[in-house]
Amino acid sequence: MDGCREKRRRCTKLRVTTDNNDMEKMMHREIERQRRQEMASLYASLRSLLPLRFIQGKRSTSDQVNEAVNYITYLERKIKELSLRRDELMLLSTGSLLDDSNDEMEMMNHVVVRHCLVGVEIVFSSRSCSGQPRLSSVLQVLSENGLSLLNSISSTVDDRLIYTIQAEVNLSYSYIRQLPNCFCIYMLQYNFQIVT
Q1: Is residue 47 part of a domain?
Q2: Using one digit for the tens of pLDDT, what is the confidence trace for 3-30?
Q3: 113 contact partners, CB below 8 Å, separation of at least 6
Q4: Statement to judge: residues 112 and 27 lie in one domain
Q5: Domain range enclosing 62
């Protein structure tokens, strides 16, 4: 009888051990299945973010990941190009070089007076605070110097007021050539930096 009990005990232990192994295998399979589902979801998300031209004809996930790396490199290059283009446009709009003294430049008021097809274009930028010329007084100076307002655009960018004024010439062209000097003298009283 003791032999039978011992045999039953061993069988029970064997069943428990086998059950534990089966349970571990099932848990491992379930964890692995969930991991694969999550990875498939992440790859699908990655594919959805890539433009079609980067993944067209690429079926394997490793090819798609390589194309994602290529796309990131492409975007970095485009960002650099656009940053350079933005800097060029800012340079053209302000008429001055962007240098290391950006903080100083941001604090200063700027005025640019240019001749254009219809007469004169004036762009001035100032910190939005008191003590700056009002648009009405600027327009009065233009009127006193023989110009008629054609177009006026104002906007606020980074706490700066930017005015772009286009004015038509009512007087002779030779007189208009003197206008930038008159206008610049007027703007100097408001501590504007004259940009040529």
Answers
A1: yes
A2: 666 666 666 666 666 677 888 889 999 9
A3: 120, 121, 122, 179, 180, 183, 184
A4: no
A5: 2-77
